[in-house]
Design a protein that fits this description.
Helix content: over 70%
Strand content: under 5%
Number of strands: 0
Length: 108
């Protein structure tokens, strides 16, 4: 899976770069896909980490997905259960980054 997606990373990024609404659709599509498969253990987390590492989906979009309540896409509760720890890590890492940015700007 990873090798296959790495092959098309450039094409995907071309379409979704700086387009949070399309990135959000990717996450909801994965949620729906995993729901249809009965949420295989770790599958959604694997995809989320991959999309994050490959810089296809922005951090803010993952956090938007976490907070967004949308009945159009089934399985949000189970999806959150699978990825909640990772999303918490992401949120904390972003907060630390923001604090570092604030600290750095005061030194200038």
């Amino acid at each position: 899976e990873n090798e296959y997606l790495k092959k098309y990373k450039g094409v995907i990024r071309t379409f979704v770069h700086e387009k949070p609404s399309l990135q959000l659709i990717i996450l909801y599509s994965l949620q729906t896909y995993c729901f249809a498969l009965g949420f295989p253990k770790g599958m959604l987390l694997k995809w989320f980490v991959f999309l994050y590492d490959m810089e296809i989906v922005d951090e803010e979009v993952f956090l938007t997905w976490k907070e967004d309540i949308n009945d159009e896409y089934p399985g949000k509760g189970k999806a959150l259960f699978q990825v909640n720890n990772w999303l918490t890590w992401l949120e904390e890492a972003e907060e630390e980054e923001d604090e570092d940015d604030e600290d750095g700007s005061e030194d200038i």
